Structure formats: C-alpha cells, structure tokens
Amino acid sequence: MGKIRTLLNRLKKSKDGRTLVANFGYLSLLQVAGYVFPLITMPYLARVIGVEGFGKIAFAAAIMVWIQTIADWGFNYTATRDVARNRDNKEIVSDIFSRVFWARCLLMMLSFFVLLVLVLCIPKFRENAAVIFVTFLMIPGHIMFPDWFFQAIERMKYTTLLNLLSKLLFTILIFVFIKEKDDYILQPLFVSLGFVLSGIIAMYYILIRWNVKLTSVPFKSVIRTIKSSTDVFINNLMPNLYNSFSTVLLGFVGGDIANGKLDPGSRFVNIFRQFTAILSRTFYPFLSRRIDKHSFYAKVNISFSVLLTIILFFAAPFLIDIFFTDEFSDAVIVLRIMSISVLSGALNAIYGVNFLLIKGFERELRILTVISSLLGFILSIPLVYFFNYIGAAIAITLTRLILAVSSMVFAKSKQKNNIL
C-alpha cells in the first residue's frame, strides 16, 4: 500500500498525472451516474413490465451488441490511439475523424440491411421486430457521439456531462410514460433518443467549438480505414460468439422469461465491470505514450477488481431482492456465477487492451480472442440447451475467464522477453 500511495502522490505532481486523475474522476462520475439512473428505474420497470418485458428488451439489446460492434469496427481503440499520438496536429486529427465517421456510417447501413433480412426471414426476429428496430436507433446516435474522440484528446468531462444529460432525460421519461406491460418498448426508445440528443451536442463541440473538420473522404480511403482496424474488430466481435449469442440462443430455447432471469444478474455484473473499465479507459491514451507505467496500472486494477468480485458474490441475494420482484429470484445464482467476470474483465483489459494492443500485437490478441470465443460458442450450445439460463451464465463466465488468463500469460511472456 505504501508503494502505491507513493506512486499516486508522484502522479498528482506531474501534468500527465493530473490529467489521469481528472479523467478518472470524470469517468467515475460518468459510470456511477450511468448506473445510478438505471438502478432507480429497475424496481419500477420490474414491477410494471415484468420478467417477460425484460426478456424482450434483453433479446433486442443482444442483437444490437453485434451491430454496434460492427459499426465501431475497432475504431474505439485504433482511432483513439492514433488521435492520442497526433492530437496537437489538427489536420491529422480531422483526417482521422472524417475517415472513421464515414466508415462507421457505411458499416451501420450494411448492418441495417442484414438486420432487415433477418427480421423478414426468421420468425423470432419478426415477432420482436418493433423492439429490435426501436433499439437500432441507438446506433446512429452512438456514431454521432464519438466518445473515443473525447477519450483520445483526454477531455472526458464533455463525455460525462453529455451522458448525464441524456440519462437524466431518459429516467424522467420512464416514470412519466411507462405505465403498463406493453409499454416496455418505450424503454429502448428513450435510451436511443438520449444517444441521439447527446450525439448532436457532441458534434457541435467537435465541429464548431474545436474546429475539427468533417470532410468528404474518397471511398477507397474509407475501405482502407476499415481494413486497417480489422484485427481489432475481430478481437471485439468474437466475444459476441459466446456473450450476446448466448442471450439470443436462450431467447430461442427458453423464451423471453428465461432471458428475463438472465438479464438482471448480468446487469449487475456489467455495472461492476464498468467500474474496472474506468481504469482501463483512463489509462489507455496515457499508456499509449507511457507503457513503462503499465505495472502500476495493473496492480491498481487487479486489487480493485478482486474487491468488487467479492462484494458482488456475497451481495447477490440482497441486490436482487431490493431491485426486483419475487419472479426474478432465480437471478441470484446467475449473479453469483457471473461475478468472477469482474476480475476476468479487468485482466483482459490490463493485458489484452492496455498492453498487447498498445504494443502492436493486434494479430496475436485477435488469435487469442478467436480461439477463446470459438470455445465459448461451442460450449454455449449444450450448456444453454440443457441448463437454460444457468447454462448461459456458465458459458459466458467460463469463456471470459479463458480469454483473460490466455491474454495475461501471453503478455507476461512478452514482458519477460524485454518487449516492454
């Protein structure tokens, strides 16, 4: 503890250290607010829309994870890294921003076409078409709100303030308009509108206040931009083979009620995982310039994630009882199984994103992710089929752990070989 305290004091005295502390504070506020507002609405929604409504929302959200991952295409890491390294050159920054913006728009349109075909051809998708298309509205809002850009230039207070605005609006609208079970579709609609509103304001700051140019880009340049981030995209996409795929598969096997039991447990796990992600996002642009500080970051994030994992495991019955009704009681075992995901998520961020990716090992990280994800995909089919929502929780948790451990072992081998 004394060594960590000394390092913290040293950070506070340097310019980079003060920036890290400020960004950590803004991201902490953002994550706390981002989950305090939903925690306020969860008991109300659980009572009004019930477990089946939660299941429908979770099914649509799982599909949207795939589309958002495609629209991001790894730019949230590669573009962040590139802008962070050239942030003092407005011309280069404008070029990166323009190429990434148009590439994401192209990917979004292609994704929508595929989604439309799925809705027309698959009965389960067609049955949930309304909630799926409403949830899709968050994608253009997400593109207009490039949080990767704010992260790259280390101005996280703007991301924080805009997100607070959208989430406050979203929370108020839920209590005003959602009054019965069939109103469940309004929840993703309000979330999407919040993204769109934040995106409009974000574009104003980027294009008008900071004078970043959004220029037309040749189609060939857009394609090259997409190709350059393909390794990172695959690395981001592959976890969906076991993560969101398990949720979608559960919707087919167990129905909306089974998804409704999986969703509350995974929600709290995602909340706690986001707190460790704060450290990852805070340090990523800094470590892109100062990778020699990686060991300090690793110690802090591991200690924090172990503490959160223990808290989540033992608090599971209390959390489900407080925030949900009796029909959600089976979510306690889901929450306890998935609590280990907090630690595995931190390990993957420490050694995968914040070491291997920064050091240029995109291909190696992609291979690790592909192998782990394929294992998870194979495991999820029998686990979900035989054990329903419990099997989905086991598949997701086990695969996350496999990826985390493999990333850690590979990164440490590179550190020992003086790659650092």
Question: How would you characterize the overall build of this protein?
Answer:
The chain has one domain (2-415). Helices cover 85% and strands 0% of the residues. It has 18 helices and no strands. The two termini are 24 Å apart.
Summed up, what is this model?
The chain is 85% helix and 0% strand. The protein contains 18 helices and no strands.
Structural class assignment: mainly alpha
Main beta sheet, described? none
Low-pLDDT stretches: none
Q: Helical stretch count?
A: 18
**Run of helices and strands:** HHHHHHHHHHHHHHHHHH
Q: How many structurally independent domains? A: 1
Beta percentage is under 5%
From the alpha-carbon coordinates, what is the Rg to the nearest angstrom? 21 Å
Which helices and strands occur, and which strands form pairs?
Blueprint: H1 2-13, H2 15-72, H3 75-85, H4 90-121, H5 123-127, H6 129-136, H7 138-144, H8 147-152, H9 156-177, H10 186-209, H11 219-228, H12 230-237, H13 244-253, H14 255-289, H15 294-323, H16 331-338, H17 340-357, H18 362-416
Features:
420 residues, mainly alpha
